[in-house]
Automatic annotation (TrEMBL):
Residues 39-291 form the ABC transporter substrate-binding protein PnrA-like domain. It comes from Homoserinibacter gongjuensis. The keyword Lipoprotein applies. InterPro entries: BMP_lipoprotein, Peripla_BP_I, PnrA-like. It is a lipid-anchor. Keywords: Cell membrane, Lipoprotein, Membrane, Signal. It holds the Pfam family Bmp. Residues 1-22 form the signal peptide. It comes from the Bacteria. Transmembrane segments: none annotated. PANTHER family: ABC TRANSPORTER GUANOSINE-BINDING PROTEIN NUPN (PTHR34296:SF2), TRANSCRIPTIONAL ACTIVATOR PROTEIN MED (PTHR34296). It is found in: Cell membrane. Belongs to the BMP lipoprotein family. This is BMP family ABC transporter substrate-binding protein.
Length: 336
C-alpha cells in the first residue's frame, strides 16, 4: 500500500519564509530592502482561455503572488520546439524559478538547467531531475481520474465510455487508465474506448476522435485536452444523450447538460509546496509524486445533472482512495 502524506496548507505565513532565506537557495532576483523577492516564471503550452490546464497555470501565478509575495509571470502558447529559448530568456533575466507547465517541456528544462546552474527549473507532469537545480513532480492522476471514471460508469446508459486525450506520456497515460479503471469499478461490464489525438490544442482532431467514439455507442466521454476540449464538447452537443467529464475546472456553465462534471486536480497547491521547499532550504533537484490527500475536497464537481446519491457514492470512493483503503494501480501504458 502506498504511503500518503498530508500536504501542507499554504498560508500567508509563507511570506515570513522569504526573510529566512540564506544565500544557499535564496531568491536571486528583486530587492525589497532585506527581503528578497522570489521571481517565478511559468511557461504554458496554450492559452489560459482554455478554462482548463493552462488556466490552472494562471491560478498558480496568482497563488504565488498572494501566498508568497512572489513576482510571478507567465508566457502563453509556447511552442515546445522553442522551449529552450524561453527557459533561457527567463534565466538571463534573473528569475529564480522557471516552471514548465507540462511534460512536453522536459527536454528544454534539462538543457537550460545545465546552462544556468544558478536558476532553478521545475517541470510539472514530468520525472526529470538532476540532483541540484532541476526538479519535477507529477501527481497520482489515476487517483483523481478514478473518481471521474467511476462517475462516468454510473451515469452511462449504453455501457460504453471513452476518453479523448492529447499526447501520451507516463502521467497522461496514468490519468487515462485511471479513468478506465474507475469506470470498470462502477460497472465491470463497461466497454472502454481510448485515443490520443497527438495535440492538446486542436479542437478539430478532438471532435473527430469524439465522434468516432460516439459512433461506437459511447454516451460518456472524458477529456485530457487543453483548447481541444471544445471539440469533444461540440461532438457531444450534436449527439443528444452524450455527456462529457472535463478536468481541472468546473466549466459546466459553458455547456449545461453536456458537461456533466469535471475532475478537480489543480496543480497550484503542488507548485506552492515546491516553492516552499526553495524558501526553507529543503529543495532537492529530484522528482516527487503527490497522491490524492484526504483534505483535498471533492475531486469531482457537482452539477444538477448528477443525482445526489451517485455523487455521494463517488465521494465515498474518493475517501477510500485517499485513506489507502482502495489502492488505485498506476498504469503508464499507452493504448495499442
Amino acid at each position: 500500500m502506498r504511503t500518503r502524506k498530508m500536504l501542507p496548507v499554504l498560508a500567508l505565513s509563507a511570506l515570513l519564509a522569504l526573510t529566512a532565506c540564506t544565500s544557499d537557495g535564496a531568491p536571486q532576483g528583486g530587492d525589497n530592502g532585506d527581503e528578497p523577492t522570489l521571481r517565478v516564471a511559468v511557461i504554458l503550452p496554450g492559452e489560459t482561455t482554455d478554462k482548463g490546464f493552462n488556466k490552472t497555470g494562471e491560478q498558480t501565478v496568482e497563488l504565488l503572488e498572494k501566498e508568497f509575495g512572489a513576482e510571478a509571470t507567465l508566457t502563453e502558447s509556447v511552442n515546445p520546439a522553442q522551449q529552450v529559448d524561453v527557459y533561457r530568456q527567463y534565466a538571463q533575466q534573473g528569475y529564480d524559478l522557471v516552471v514548465g507547465w507540462g511534460g512536453q517541456f522536459s527536454d528544454g528544462a534539462v538543457a537550460a538547467a545545465e546552462e544556468f546552474p544558478d536558476t532553478k527549473f521545475l517541470v510539472v507532469s514530468s520525472a526529470v531531475e538532476n540532483g541540484s537545480n532541476l526538479a519535477s513532480y507529477d501527481t497520482a492522476l489515476e487517483d483523481w481520474h478514478f473518481v471521474g471514471g467511476y462517475l462516468m460508469g454510473r451515469l452511462s446508459k449504453t455501457g460504453v465510455v471513452g476518453q479523448v486525450s492529447g499526447q501520451c506520456f507516463a502521467s497522461t497515460a496514468s490519468g487515462q487508465n485511471g479513468t478506465r479503471d474507475g469506470a470498470k469499478y462502477a460497472n465491470p461490464d463497461i466497454e472502454w474506448l481510448a485515443t490520443y489525438t497527438g495535440d492538446f490544442e486542436d479542437p478539430t482532431k478532438a471532435q473527430q476522435a469524439a465522434q468516432a467514439m460516439i459512433d461506437q455507442g459511447a454516451d460518456m466521454l472524458a477529456t485530457n485536452l487543453n483548447q481541444g476540449v471544445y471539440g469533444v464538447v461540440q461532438a457531444a452537443k450534436a449527439s443528444p444523450g452524450v455527456g462529457v467529464v472535463t478536468e481541472w475546472l468546473d466549466n459546466s456553465a459553458d455547456a449545461p447538460g453536456v458537461i456533466l462534471s469535471g475532475v478537480d486536480k489543480s496543480y497550484a497547491r503542488f507548485v506552492g509546496v515546491k516553492v516552499q521547499q526553495i524558501l526553507d532550504g529543503t529543495w532537492k533537484g529530484e522528482h516527487e509524486r503527490f497522491f490524492l490527500p484526504e483534505d483535498w475536497g471533492p475531486a469531482i464537481f457537482k452539477t444538477a445533472d448528477i443525482p445526489d446519491d451517485v455523487y455521494q457514492d463517488a465521494l465515498d470512493v474518493q475517501a477510500k482512495i485517499a485513506s489507502g483503503e482502495l489502492d488505485v494501480v498506476r498504469d503508464e501504458t499507452c493504448p495499442g
